[in-house]
Design goal:
With about 800 residues, the chain is α+β, with helices and mostly antiparallel strands. It folds into 3 domains: about 1-40 and about 285-455 and about 675-800, no CATH class; about 55-270, no CATH class; about 465-670, no CATH class. About 50% of the residues lie in helices and about 15% in strands. The strands form 3 sheets. Strands 1, 2, 3, 4, 5, 6, 7, 8, 9, 10 and 11 form an 11-stranded mixed sheet that branches. Strand 1 and strand 2 form a beta hairpin. It is found in: Cell membrane. InterPro entries: ABC3_permease_C, MacB_PCD, Macrolide_Exporter_MacB. Keywords: Cell membrane, Membrane, Transmembrane, Transmembrane helix. It is a multi-pass membrane protein.
Length: about 800
């Protein structure tokens, strides 16, 4: 029986070769997209799975109700108190300065080693990398010790058995206490060396408001992290409020509402990559991943819809076959199983083709996402095969039930072709397919428009020909280094102007604190800078004046603020210039002397933050963190000037260190890469959807028009013109298309509006994508269907009327 069913299946595949090819193509394309996105998802979810303690380690984030924002930093005394007073907390590790590098010297060589991390002494309790040499006990206890990865050990010593050896950098000797092997599995935490920032921790140990560290907590087994939230509020945040002298006259809750944080969030270690609200290790983007996955599933659904449509449209061709088989005793169950088998054979063929196509496309996909994924994850095979089974059941069962319900007497009389039975099913499924296609067209146009809007937006500054050169980490008296370089580098031919600014467009390096005015407080970014920084960046002065090097007060207690700062306090410009503010980074009040126009230094996804600009010498804390020098290059010989700067830097400023530089406009352009990739992926998926839908429409219209050839012959005999016949044959499909687009409009509007909400600077929802979607699908539908309709008008009248 099985052999007989397969023979019938292949006869029908051959007879309906066009619909068979379209089904194979559509399912292969759909399953390939599904596998690639599933590979990407599984890869993103696999981070930190290697860690045997992942179920006990949680990443700490703060929540600020007033700003409705999450932070990824914690202060030293908060972490210590959490361990001391909260029963569920077993341990903690603090970390910062990820990605640092030093020129290190051993007894045999000097080499630059990068990608280091500073972390408190219990780091290896949380991240037990495979130990190669030495011991983890007391490996990070004290400030004269260092742990190296095997790669770093080979770079510095030529071997990995170097525990007890000495390495010198930053004018200090360090003893190698451990050598470890980094995991080959995905991890965001892969430091090539680890140091304990003992002095920094000591300086901050009583500063509850210095949120300078990221923090992981290890919870005791059986502890529910959600139950610790209230403990953090009462035992940590409110406790801090009672200690702060600024809390006099306020309840702890009033203090938290004013200064924050008001709540906390603990994210499991292996979910940080995708599900953290804020992270040191990159912005999580689970929503985009879900959108891509949903779109890939929709393409598979479209392919299944094609299958259902084509199978039901072929019903008249199989009607007599079914009638005969029922007449000789075949049961309904047998027929359903047979039709499911036919579907399964096609789906398995598509599955095998998609595996080959996925392997072929994977190198390009890896390059696009900058990954090294391989087809070695059983989840991909399992879930894609489950998808094949689901497609078989969905796209096979509906036509199978439909065909198996034919009545033997009716089909043997040959009346089925003229019956309206099943037309509603084909029309309904075709409408669903066109709804999805319409959504993709509308969505693709809106995504393109939003990306174009972001790329063309006036940022409020000019970064053309501005070169940023970063200092190496941990410079002694870095402000003096900057002031010396400012004089010397301004003499290099081709350098037009020199300055320093803490806030650099296109980077995430920044700091913030509360800024108080009377009984109000806001969170504001710090903009320590040289006198000429804002003019250097072509930022516009809205009101007041710039900082003046001739006024001593401008290095003591004066500041400029941006429009967002003024707006946050609810002032007008005149009020702002009369007020004095007290920033959290200093103990004195600052007088506002100028207001600058807002300019965007972050991704355009986020709003411009309130920012206070002040000279770096105004506070001892800020001058210790001068970390770059900025140079405006003359346009006539940019490459030559950069080479001269590089030669000077590598020879006289930081010999042995890499020349760490970038142009501002190029750096900020990288903030668009994520959205440009989304745009590219959406465009590709859009093309795939339209291709699958139109091929399905062509095959379906071909089958349905073939069933009407006798009607065409009769009408043509009665004098109907080709134009009237073509419109008559295409009218039904045009009405279906119109209905589908009208249904898709509110759905698309809602979904794309939700997507746009993620952008602080977004377009107003345009009307034209909805109109273009309607016109495009109507034109394409007419073009696709009219090709077959035109051929139908050329039928041989004798062939179809000779028996009438």
């Amino acid at each position: 029986m099985l052999n007989n069913w397969l023979k019938i299946a292949f006869i029908n595949y051959k007879k309906n070769w066009l619909s068979t090819a379209i089904n194979l193509f559509g399912l292969t394309v759909g399953l390939t997209g599904f596998m690639l996105i599933l590979l990407h998802w599984n890869d993103e979810e696999s981070f930190e799975k290697w860690n045997p303690k992942k179920n006990e380690i949680y990443y700490f984030q703060t929540y600020h109700k007033k700003e409705n924002s999450y932070g990824n930093n914690l202060s030293v005394p908060m972490a210590r108190r959490a361990k001391d007073v909260i029963p569920g907390v077993e341990d903690y590790v603090l970390f910062n300065s990820a990605g640092i590098g030093f020129k290190m010297t051993t007894k045999n060589k000097t080499a630059y080693q990068q990608d280091g991390l500073t972390a408190s002494e219990h780091f290896f309790n949380f991240f037990p990398f495979k130990l190669v040499s030495g011991s983890y006990k007391n490996a990070l206890k004290g400030d004269g010790v260092i742990a190296l990865s095997t790669t770093a050990a080979k770079n510095l010593f030529g071997t990995t058995n170097v525990a007890g050896e000495s390495v010198k950098f930053d004018n200090k000797n360090y003893v190698v206490t451990a050598v470890y092997e980094l995991p080959k599995e995905n991890s965001q935490i892969k430091p090539e060396f680890v140091l304990n920032p003992v002095q920094q921790i000591k300086n901050d140990e009583n500063n509850w408001g210095n949120f300078n560290f990221g923090c992981f907590f290890m919870l005791k087994k059986g502890t529910d992290p959600s139950t610790l939230r209230q403990k953090f509020i009462t035992d940590i945040f409110e406790y801090r409020a009672k200690l702060d002298k600024d809390s006099e006259g306020m309840t702890p809750q009033q203090y938290l509402d004013l200064y924050g944080p008001t709540d906390s969030l603990l994210t499991p270690l292996d979910q940080v990559k995708l599900h953290a609200k804020a992270s040191w290790f990159g912005v999580p983007d689970f929503k985009t991943l879900m959108i891509l996955f949903t779109l890939s599933v929709l393409i598979v659904v479209l392919s299944a819809i094609n299958f259902i449509n084509l199978k039901t449209a072929q019903a008249s061709q199989r009607a007599k076959e079914i009638g005969v088989r029922k007449a000789i005793g075949s049961t309904k169950t047998n027929l359903i199983v047979q039709f499911l088998l036919e579907t399964f054979v096609l789906c398995i063929a598509s599955y095998l083709l998609s595996l080959a196509l996925t392997e072929l496309l994977l190198p390009s996909f890896n390059k696009f996402f900058d990954k090294e994924m391989k087809m070695n994850d059983w989840h991909v095979y399992f879930y894609s095969f489950v998808m094949v089974i689901m497609v078989t059941l969905i796209s096979g069962l509906i036509p199978a039930m439909y065909l198996s319900n034919f009545k033997a007497i009716e089909t043997l009389k040959g009346n089925f072709a003229r019956s309206k039975h099943g037309i509603w099913l084909r029309n309904g499924i075709l409408t669903l397919q066109l709804i999805i296609s319409s959504f993709f067209i509308i969505g693709g146009l809106i995504v393109n428009q939003q990306v174009k809007h972001m790329m063309n937006k006036d940022l409020g500054y000019s970064g053309k020909q501005i070169l940023i050169v970063n200092f190496r980490e941990f410079n002694p008296k870095p402000w003096l280094k900057y002031e010396r370089l400012r004089t010397e580098m301004s003499k290099i031919p081709g350098v037009d102007e020199v300055t320093y600014g803490e806030i650099i467009p296109g980077t995430n390096r920044s700091s913030s604190s509360n800024v108080d005015f009377m009984n109000q407080s806001i969170q504001a970014q710090h903009g320590s800078m040289d006198y000429n920084y804002l003019q250097f960046m072509n930022v516009k002065l809205k009101k007041g004046r710039w900082l003046d090097p001739n006024l001593a007060s401008d290095t003591i207690n004066t500041a400029l603020v941006n429009e967002a700062f003024v707006k946050k306090f609810g002032w007008n410009d005149d009020e702002a210039l009369k007020n004095e503010i007290r920033p959290g980074f200093d103990s004195i009040k600052y007088h506002i002397v100028g207001i600058v126009k807002d300019f965007n230094v972050r991704s355009l996804r986020s709003e411009i933050e309130p920012t206070v600009f002040f000279h770096y010498r105004e506070t001892d804390w800020k001058k210790e963190y001068v970390y770059n020098i900025q140079l405006k290059i003359k346009p006539d010989d940019i490459e030559g000037t950069v080479n001269r700067i590089k030669k000077y830097w590598s020879g006289s400023v930081e010999p042995g260190y890499p020349f760490d530089y970038f142009f501002i406009d190029q750096k900020f352009a990288k903030t668009f890469e994520r959205y440009q990739k989304q745009q590219t992926l959406f465009t590709i998926l859009n093309a795939m959807v339209l291709m699958v839908a139109l091929l399905g429409l062509f095959a379906l219209s071909s089958l349905m028009i073939e069933q009407k050839l006798k009607d065409v012959a009769i009408k043509k005999t009665l004098g109907a013109s080709d134009g009237i016949l073509i419109m008559g044959l295409t009218k039904q499909f045009l009405w279906i298309t119109l209905t589908a687009v009208l249904i898709s409009i509110p759905i698309s509007y809602y979904l794309m509006n939700e997507w746009l909400k993620d952008f602080a600077y977004r377009i107003d929802m345009p009307v034209w994508p909805f109109i273009i979607s309607l016109l495009t699908l109507l034109i394409l539908t007419f073009a696709v269907v009219s090709i077959k309709a035109y051929k139908a008008t050329k039928v041989s009248l004798v062939k179809y009327l000779k028996y009438e």
